[in-house]
Write a structure and sequence with these properties.
The protein is mainly α. The protein has helices at residues 3-16, 21-34, 39-43. It is built from 3 helices and no strands.
């Protein structure tokens, strides 16, 4: 098995794991950007 393939699988597992902090942060960020009552909504749509 190539050395890099295990690491890339681990990274994907961490991103898809609902108990992982980075997964929660990513989902929270997306939720904030989709919520019109949150200031992140407007800032995500500025050009």
């Amino acid at each position: 098995m190539p050395k890099g393939s295990k690491s890339s699988r681990n990274n994907r597992s961490n991103l898809k794991n609902p108990n992982n902090a980075s997964n929660k942060a990513s989902k929270d960020n997306r939720s904030n950007q989709m919520n019109p009552n949150n200031e992140a909504y407007e800032s995500s749509r500025e050009e």
